[in-house]
Structure formats: structure tokens, C-alpha cells
Amino acid sequence: MAGAAVGPCAVYISGNIGDSVLHLGFIRALSQQLGRPLILLNPLPPAVNRLFEAQPYIERVVGIADIERAADRGERGRRMTQLLRSLQLDTLFFFNFKTYAAIAALRAGVPRRIGFVRRHQFFNALLFTHHVMVQKRGTTHPDTHSWLPRLLGRHGYPAEAIYPSLFDSAEASAQAAQLAQDHPRLIALGLGASVAARRYPAALCAELIGRLQAADPACSFLLFGAADVADLAAEIRGQCEGRARLLDITGMDLDLRVGSALIARCLGCVSNDSLALHLAVAHRVPTVGLFGISPPMHYVPWLRPLEAEGPGGMSGIASARVAAALLEQMAAFPQGLR
After folding, report:
1. Of 121, 154, 187, which one is at a domain's C-terminal end?
2. Beta bridge partners of residue 41, listed in sequence order
3. Nearest to 39 by CA among 108, 87, 75, 6
4. Are residues 206 and 101 in the same domain?
5. I need a surface site. Which of 248, 255, 278, 287 has the fewest CB within 10 A?
6. Who has greater pLDDT, 237 or 294?
7. Residue 108's pLDDT band (boundaries 50, 70, 90)?
8. Of the candidates 154, 183, 215, which is a domain's last residue?
9. Preceding amide of 164 cis, omega within 30
10. Residue 225: left (phi > 0), alpha (psi -120 to 50), or beta?
11. Confidence (pLDDT) at 5
12. DSSP 201
């Protein structure tokens, strides 16, 4: 049985930070089932991985960015094989699939290799000891939460993720409390996105802020994102013209652990398909996700997805719809300060 693993276990995730946070609930569930923390293999930078290393169910993070970016495919496979041999794993869970990594696990002699196979590439099943077949097309998410429970449950592991699944250190929580000391009723607006077309326009953000402030005059707004959306945050600030209480962290170069703790303090969150959305869900913050150009996600009840009406992309999601949906979410899943 797959659940009888006795040696080190690892999870392979090849994607951006949102993909990793999206899967933390499953990693936590696996850790509890196995009675030990897991190793996380991912290609994210050290500054990002500190958030994952702080989680009690993750033993350590092994960065594979250099391997995944290697131009020579043969070198990439050799280096991954060597790495997996050195880890002496009992079980490797593939939450994403890349052919070279699956071949490397086979060559490294990892006894249990648990992953998924696309139906039109059924031959890849030979690379795994345990697998499920999934649809021919589809992104890693949102269909992850359809097939991953089936994969894990079929082979003796918990079939459901555990939320909340993010733990913030006392130090990070204290720093977040200090930043938010003048903002006791925060609502987060997730601004970041790897693709600019996924960002909610500044004018609509300002409209949304006005609508939510009319419903709760005591609330403040956390503009969540990194330096790449500082211009968007500045535009939002300009359009609000001092009428709203804003906490803009986009230019602070903030430690992600502190950013996570700030999200945890929020009463609600509105975000595009980006990190803020997954952080909020991992903390069980009532959330409205904006999916103007990407497939909507439905993986927990406190995440309500909204899609564009018509061909307008993110601009096709009216601020009135967003405000109403968030107020409903906040009433259904009331959130106190942590």
C-alpha cells in the first residue's frame, strides 16, 4: 500500500508561487497521514521559499530552479536524477507533471512515484508506480482539485486538503500587526499577476473601494502585490483621492512571511488569479476571485469565483457584482482577527 511509506517523502511542484500555495493543504494532509514533514521540490527563489520553510509540515525546501532552467535537456535529466538519488526518497508525489522529472525519479530508483497522466499520453503511466488518468486538456489548476483527491485517495492517502494550511510565525505576525495598527478592519485587494491582462483595472478597484467603504465606513484596504504592480497601486491611490484608508505594500519589498500574516488579518479579500487569492484561501479568509481571462476556481466554499460578462476580460467584471459577492462571503464566513 502506498500509505506504508517509511522513508523520506517529497512533493514535486513545478510552477509559480501561486501553484505552490494552492497545494499546501494537500501537503499538510499528507504530512499528518505519514506522521512526518515532507520535502518540497520547487523552482522558486529562496526569498519565496522562506514562506514554505516556515510551515511545520514541510521538512525543508529543495530549490530546483537551476535544474529546471538548464538549456540542455540531457544535463537537466542527469542533474535531477543525481538530486533524487541523494535524497534517498521512499515516495515522490508529482503535483505537476514534467516528463524529465518523472524519468529522473524512475532512474533514481524512487520506490513509490505517485502522479497523474493525461489520457492522450497514456504511455507516461509507465513512469509511475501509482497514477490516475485525467482529461486530455486542462491547466494544472483549476482541475487540480478534481483529480488530486482521486489520485491520493485511490492509493491510501487523505483525499481532501486541510485548510487553513498556512502558519505564520510570531515574528511575522507581530510585524504584520505593527503595519496594520491603524487599520483594524482590513480588506485585501490582490493586484499582482504574471500576466498584465489578469489585473483588475485601477478605475474598477477605486469603484470597488468606494462601494465597500459605503457598506462599512470603518474598513481599510490592503493593496497587496510586489513592485511590478506599484504603478497600478499608485493609480488606485490617485483615483481614491484620499477618500479611503489604504495600506499600500507594493513598494515595501516586504518579506512574504509578513505579507502572509497581513492577509491572515483581513476580514475579506478580492483578488485576481494570483498569489493573494491563494494566501487568503490558505488562511480561510472569505474571498472573491476575479477570473476575466483565466478559468475559474471552485476549490473551497469561502472562495467565490466571478467571471467576466461579455468579451471585456477583467473590465467585464463590474465592481457592483464584486462588492455584493464579497459582502455575501464575509457574512457567510465571518472572519475575526487572528
Report:
1. 154
2. 12, 62
3. 87
4. no
5. 255
6. 237
7. very high
8. 154
9. yes
10. left
11. 61
12. P
Residue 114 sits in the same domain as residue 181:
no
pLDDT per position as a tens digit, 136-181: 665 545 567 888 898 999 999 988 899 899 999 999 999 999 999 9
Rounded to an integer, what distance in angstroms lies between the CA atom of residue 13 and that of residue 15?
6
Amino acid 141 reads H
Stretch (H or E) spanning 246? strand 246-248
pLDDT (0 to 100) of residue 338: 37
| Statement to judge: residues 27 and 66 lie in one domain | yes
CB 230 within 8 A of CB 142: no
To the nearest 5 percent, what fractions of the chain are helix, strand and coil? 45, 15, 40
The percentage of the chain sitting over the pLDDT mark of 70, rounded to a whole number, equals 95
Q: Count of domains in the chain?
A: 2
Contact 141, 297 (CB under 8 A): yes
Q: DSSP label at 200?
A: P
Q: Write the pLDDT tens digit of every residue in 82-98.
A: 999 999 999 999 998 99
Pair 221, 322 in one domain = yes
C-alpha cell at 7: 522513508
**For residue 211, pLDDT beyond 90:** yes
